[in-house]
Amino acid sequence: MSLVAAPGSALASHNQVAILQDNSNVLGNPQATLQGMRHIGVQMVRISIDWSLIAPSPTSFHRPSFNASDPNAYPSGSWTQYDNVVRDAKPLGIQVMFVPTAFAPLWAQGPNPGRYGAKYDSYFAFEPSANEFGQFVRAVGTRYGGQFRPPGSNSPLPRVSTWELYNEPNFGEDLAPQAINGSSVLYAPRMYRALADASWGALHGTGHGRDTILIGSLAGGVGSAARPGRADPQGLPGTYGATKAIVFIRELYCLDPSYHQYLGGAAAIRGCPTTIAGYRRFRAQHPVLFSASGFSDHPYPLNAPPNRSDSSDPSYAQFNQLPNFAQTLDRIQRIYGSGKRFPIWNTEYGYVTCPPTCGHHPSNVSPTTAASYINWAEYLSWRNSRIASTMQYLLYDPNPTVGTPEYGGFASGLIFYPTILGGTPKPAYYAYRLPLFLPSTSTTHGRTLEVWGAVRPEPFAAADGRPAPVQIEFAPGASNSWSTLKTLNVTDRRGYFDVRVAFPSSGSVRIAWTYPPLDLSLASTLVTGYVEPLGPTTSRTVKVTIR
Q1: Cα dist from 370 to 44, 98, 322, 470, whole Å
Q2: Distance in angstroms (rounded) separating the CA atoms of residues 346 and 115
Q3: Residue 450 · residue 7 · CB < 8 Å
Q4: pLDDT tens, position by position, for the chain (547 residues)?
């Protein structure tokens, strides 16, 4: 499988979903933020539901007496933010993906974390109880099953039908310890197998058996391995390190480095069947590993373009390594006699920019480069029918003075933080709204170039009225005199188009589209104090050379 296919749309992913995640702003101001997302065409919002932020007495070591499967048994108000999101998203036509995940309440964490150099922290998860987590997921599934009416409400909450089971289980702060016995035995895959099993049962038990349920959610570009030393007495990945994505997947399915099933003591310590006969029941015992709707990854390369990795390690799962990621999943399924070919979901992706991170990380890409890279990545995703989603993380850059100010914040947003450059949109904002990519930007006179793009808000406009056609515009040489070369009516249900265009000379190309003038539900609410110019909305500009 290749992510780079020949021109033509035979293998294209016509159902590719545009996802965006920004927990802080969506939960803090859902109505305005979600409408602003609709303005730029976001089709699905990803929201993590952190267990210890919902659970009672999360910093206590003593489990409170309550029915953890009953959403009404949780503290009053703990669900309010999530209720508001599902209520506000429905009339806007935005789907919701919920990700029940750690942090874990202390009363649900394992004993004596000090033996692995760990600590108790309700914002971490040390050996979280799969049984307790499953009850929490059952409460979430019940609340957002479409029939649950909160106390005092006259109507049930809208249904959520897309789920991702846990977040980055191969990262130690989310699931610890990653490895034990001097990092000679990976332990997080065993725990995640149990957590995913419990979550699968909980969602099926609350009427979500036909929903989209994803597993994996792996951090694709991190991970290391090392023997114990002075700096890392537990070795690496140890307790709070990270396990490489491909290695994590292999261990999740109880396979050794040669892709043979673990047996005997090596299997027992990993929670795997100890005999060949035991493996005959493995698929039936762990249906989530074989029947989930898709496998998800966070394929950041951070500084590299989407056709390269910032590491040559084949055990990573960065964007250009997704073919190997898919092939590994297929190989494992065949080992167990399954023909399953998981759709690959990209559920976290973006580029941290300089500015605002230049002070400590000047090697981060410029905002203009980030705009180009996100369009490039989406084109490559669209070209491959195996990839089910395109992803943007975040909407707004975080406050660079909060958390780790020396890092400058994970500034992968589409809009600068208000104290940075006036909180104006980055070039990526416009690139996200109207993606544009030319696989080749040079040709000879009389020949055509492939012009791929999308009018991301167009599906919402089509639902609300009669959208304007998209125009492919051209400016010769270094001029700013734009004219229309081609006008298209976009018919793709996700707003994509892919055409060939003959350019009269060297110059610049962009696309332009006009919002329906009377559609207030598509109005921008994202940027405080910023007013978009009237008239057509335009994409980023791409230069072409005609020889």
Answers
A1: 22, 27, 20, 24
A2: 36
A3: yes
A4: 334 333 445 556 678 999 999 999 999 999 999 999 999 999 999 999 999 999 999 999 999 999 999 999 999 899 999 999 999 999 999 999 999 999 999 999 999 999 998 999 999 999 999 999 999 999 999 999 999 999 999 999 999 999 999 999 999 999 999 999 999 999 999 999 999 999 999 999 999 999 999 999 999 999 999 999 988 999 999 999 999 999 999 999 999 999 999 999 999 999 999 999 999 999 999 999 999 999 999 999 988 999 999 888 999 999 999 999 999 999 999 999 999 999 999 999 999 999 998 877 788 999 999 999 999 999 999 999 999 999 999 999 998 877 655 556 899 999 999 888 888 999 999 999 999 999 999 999 999 999 999 999 998 887 766 667 999 999 999 999 999 999 999 988 899 999 999 999 999 999 999 988 767 778 787 765 566 666 789 999 999 999 9
The type of residue at 420 is: I
Round to whole Å and give the CA distance between 354 and 256: 41
Distance (Å, whole) CA 450 – CA 95: 31
Tokens 């500084």 — which residue?
303
In angstroms, the CA 77 to CA 50 distance is 15
494: left (phi over 0), alpha (psi -120 to 50) or beta: alpha
Task: For residue 15, give both structure tokens.
Answer: 């159902």
Tokens coding 226: 């090392």
Q: What is the DSSP letter of 178?
A: S
Q: Which of 438, 460, 436 is nearest to 516 (CA)?
A: 460
Count Cα neighbours of 468 within 13 Å in the Cβ-side half-sphere.
15
- Which residues are CB-contacts of 410 (< 8 A; sequence separation ≥ 6)? 352, 394, 398
Beta strands in 354-414 (DSSP E): 389-393
36 backbone dihedrals φ, ψ, rounded to 5°: -65, -35
> Rounded to the nearest 5°, which phi and psi values hold at 330?
-65, -40
Nearest to 72 by CA among 150, 14, 125: 150
Q: Which of 511, 323, 547, 366 is nearest to 431 (CA)?
A: 511
Residue type, 243: T
Three-class SS state of 186: strand
Cβ proximity of 69 and 142 under 8 Å:
yes
Q: What token pair was written down for 130?
A: 């799969």
**Both tokens assigned to 421:** 């450059």
Neighbours of 380 (CB within 10 A): 22
Query: 3-class SS at 57?
Result: coil
